[in-house]
């Protein structure tokens, strides 16, 4: 692993239906609810934050704000924003496919070469992935990756943002 002072701790995402979200993450995904906090003023709204644990020790913080509405479509493919869980083997992934079917959760599959993935959405439209095998645990900086980023930036005139038409 590169020498970096940063370690991933948690991911915080907004949710809009607490009952369905709680059921989905505890019953369908079988993640333990390890904490819940609430208050009466986050941006002027009462709020609830549910913390779900993962096998690797990081947390998923799902935040509900009273009266908040999901954002409208932005023209991006839905799966461009997603987060991925990994499982140890294709056998375990097959068990997840059966579990998703049992709960009536629609999913798609993609073969990424080294990895195979299932994609599906939670009750809030958050796209999730279950992939196998896990990404390499000993990540190292890749000069070729940096070159691909630099080519992208140069091709777009130095800014790196895709121009709006």
Describe the structure in your own words.
With 165 residues, this protein is α/β, with parallel strands linked by helices. The chain folds into two domains: 9-70, 2,3-Dihydroxybiphenyl 1,2-Dioxygenase, domain 1; 77-138, 2,3-Dihydroxybiphenyl 1,2-Dioxygenase, domain 1. It has helices at residues 18-28, 90-102, 143-155; strands spanning 10-15, 33-42, 45-53, 59-65, 82-86, 108-111, 116-121, 127-132. The chain has a four-stranded mixed beta sheet, with helices on one face. It has a four-stranded mixed beta sheet with strand order 5-8-7-6. A hairpin with a 2-residue loop joins strand 2 and strand 3.
Topology, element by element:
Layout lengths: L9 E6 L2 H11 L4 E10 L2 E9 L5 E7 L16 E5 L3 H13 L5 E4 L4 E6 L5 E6 L10 H13 L10
Parallel strand pairs: 1-4, 5-8
Antiparallel strand pairs: 2-3, 3-4, 6-7, 7-8
Keywords:
2,3-Dihydroxybiphenyl 1,2-Dioxygenase, domain 1; four-stranded mixed beta sheet; 32% strand; globular; alpha/beta; 2 domains
SSE order in H/E notation? EHEEEEHEEEH
| Lateral strand order in the biggest sheet | 1-4-3-2
What is the straight-line distance between the termini? Answer: 41 Å
CATH architecture of the largest domain: Roll
Total of domains? 2
Give the CATH class of the largest domain: Alpha Beta
- Approximately how much helix is present in the residues? 10-25%
Task: Calculate the mean pLDDT score and round it.
Answer: 92
Q: Structural class, from secondary structure content?
A: alpha/beta
State which percent range the strand residues make up: 25-35%
Radius of gyration based on Cα positions: 19 Å
Number of strands: 8
Low-confidence stretches: none
CATH topology grouping of the largest domain: 2,3-Dihydroxybiphenyl 1,2-Dioxygenase, domain 1
Shape verdict: globular
